[in-house]
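Fold this complex.
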Amino acid sequence: MPADNIQLDDNGKLLHFLSIEGLNQSILTEILDTAESFTSVSERNVKKVPILRGKTVANLFFESSTRTRSTFELAEQRLSADILSLNVSTSATTKGESLLDTLQNLEAMQIDMFVIRHRDSGSAYFFAQHVGPGVSVLNAGDGQHEHPSQAMLDMYTIRHYKKDFSQLRVAIVGDILHSRVARSQIHALNLLNTAEVRVIAPRTLLPVNTESLGVQVFEDLDQGLKDADVVIMLRLQKERMRGALLPSEKEYFRLYGLSQDRLNLAKPDAIVMHPGPANRGVEIESSVMDGNQSVILQQVSFGISVRMAVMSMIVGQSGLQTGDES
Amino acid sequence: MPADNIQLDDNGKLLHFLSIEGLNQSILTEILDTAESFTSVSERNVKKVPILRGKTVANLFFESSTRTRSTFELAEQRLSADILSLNVSTSATTKGESLLDTLQNLEAMQIDMFVIRHRDSGSAYFFAQHVGPGVSVLNAGDGQHEHPSQAMLDMYTIRHYKKDFSQLRVAIVGDILHSRVARSQIHALNLLNTAEVRVIAPRTLLPVNTESLGVQVFEDLDQGLKDADVVIMLRLQKERMRGALLPSEKEYFRLYGLSQDRLNLAKPDAIVMHPGPANRGVEIESSVMDGNQSVILQQVSFGISVRMAVMSMIVGQSGLQTGDES
Amino acid sequence: MPADNIQLDDNGKLLHFLSIEGLNQSILTEILDTAESFTSVSERNVKKVPILRGKTVANLFFESSTRTRSTFELAEQRLSADILSLNVSTSATTKGESLLDTLQNLEAMQIDMFVIRHRDSGSAYFFAQHVGPGVSVLNAGDGQHEHPSQAMLDMYTIRHYKKDFSQLRVAIVGDILHSRVARSQIHALNLLNTAEVRVIAPRTLLPVNTESLGVQVFEDLDQGLKDADVVIMLRLQKERMRGALLPSEKEYFRLYGLSQDRLNLAKPDAIVMHPGPANRGVEIESSVMDGNQSVILQQVSFGISVRMAVMSMIVGQSGLQTGDES
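Structure:
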């Protein structure tokens, strides 16, 4: 899969947003800083700026999604874009058109930005390689590859609560093997010079080359949580249970579920994160999810600002100007 | 179910719009007056005012609906809101999230107003009890409990054609037992001091405590229609036929269907209303539905103004200011 | 089916856009000229004009569609309309309402324009006959009758590349019998005084009265393509295969599929068009579809301008005024 050359132009400006891999610390920090300026937009009375006014954004969700799709749509509305949201599973592809045909037809409609979620790893790259100049692609999750806007809202959340990555121990718990979220998080945490990135999972849910990703691997949850500043729980896809990868939900919770007792092994001020939707009682105890160390709902809020930031950087505006209210 | 304390603030201002029960005559009259100022908006050339500009309204329809959902969406657009419409049956709840999780995640997206339709009675109250300060909930129909915006557009229609409630005989005909529309109408008619509210239905379609609602009960349609000023026909849910509650459609029409002959028992200038969608030939004869006493389509039109009124009262603007065109 | 009297007012102004049949050369030319002024809108940085500001357009797609529906929605957004898009198959009609009831209820919501696609020929006319004054209907495809906006974007494409219709040989290839697109194209090409309109199809896919439409009929593809300036391929509905009308896909391609070799029989600068979605390898070879004589994607682009043109003519604005940016 191509890496650093397609997302950035010769001056290092963001053209597409496809994966954290291939980006650099400076871009990641710019996204976080820009998002910070937009957080105030979402909180003020008139939540709108004209940055994407007269631009058209097409949301192509080949996989269903509530959280990601809704926050992208709200980000687009708050940037004043025109929006074309296609429920792609029920549209032209059912008439036998290929993904490339669908893309080219939409591009002919003068779409400025595509937000795409697709079950195939690499689909967002495929799109980006085929759109013409001036058209951008944002990856909203491609197969088991990456989910970069989720990772950036996670980084935003961590920076918001913990400030300095270089002092942090971050533990990611769960199905690393199948998780595009984990993959993007690990790249981002490393680019931002996180002191220690841990992954905690049973062997069956770890990629073979995990250590090469620059993380410490723990199979034991208690050991992995020790002194962590940030605990990120991953969603357990229930279909994994049906395969040979895992025993029962109950057994999974016993071994890898986050209870309050376990959380107490981490630092007293550790924060708990989850990309959602969570399986209460499977990977996380309800009381922890709703407890005062949980910042799970704040992640959702920050997701809008982060998506606004990425889209406005792509059109060449780094954040909010004075008097920028539309 | 909680009543008067949650919908109004200490100054009697509207915070949520959940049920007619618990509101008072002054609020109902303010809704009608405000709606009147918006009727002109829908009729003029540019049907838009900036009252909800930069606010976000989420439409959560767990039950399908064309009329109610479309008129809410149009009301929101005409108030210049940003709109997030979720087809909730196919979204996160299918991934096993609870209603409360869905709500909290959406609230984290800085939604200002929720419009919710749900098959469970009390769901709108449940939402209102759980949202934070500054966030409002509008009930677009909850189970067999209430459908307050429908009742208010009905009140608007009655006042438009008949002016003074204190002189009116209003007959509601059909499945009172299962009808959230009827429940809301009865409360509203009583709050507005209607001279006489009649319900006409077979025993099997009447709640046990009907009389305690402040209505006159008739099992005979002809008697109930006598000298009525307003005749409101309810939709007959066809699934009731399959239960033991009712005989055939034909038999129902013979006993409780509104024909022109029967309508002639009411006052000569009586108006005929129906919340829609109507079963022609079951609860109402086609010629009556399309006849010149029918104001059924006018109800739909007024529905937009009434919904605009409620939403603008909630954000603290009672109707249209001069020069308020966006 | 009514023809010329309902689409135009007494001064020849466009009221509805239902079929090419019944329109005249002057209106068609005005549509093309107006569309030309809008092409620049879609290409500029802020793709928006306020021509439909405060107007409401309802998109009623009883048949699914990506291309037509998306380009209509984008045209409406770029004209700044309020938009109500109903997935009609899953809405009120499932509760047993008739088409007319649905229409009247929507009309009561002060819709200014209806865009309707429906499997029944004549449905758009039916709508136009029943809406009140000031409300317009646009046909986005009705059964096997007409698809006039598709035909006009095709005319726009031809004029763009070939200028003068009076010198052109245009060949339409494929399932003429079932094609609303072909029917609209033939009317439009004749109204615009095309030198020669050819249809090329097996007998089983030709209407009985084809010659009376003012076209030359060819059963042999090679003969029909000879010296053509424009080659329009029609989509082959695969369900035709299952009937007795056609042999296999492979056999169809051998007889009526457009390969590069065959295209070489047309003029060297002939353009290739297709309304989409195309069946690659059935009616058209992939290399031709993606080749440099193909203008298939340009058709899609022009579709937005043409739809903007029709809608703005209906509201009484013939194209773009200076300073018309919203």
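The mean pLDDT of chain A is 91.
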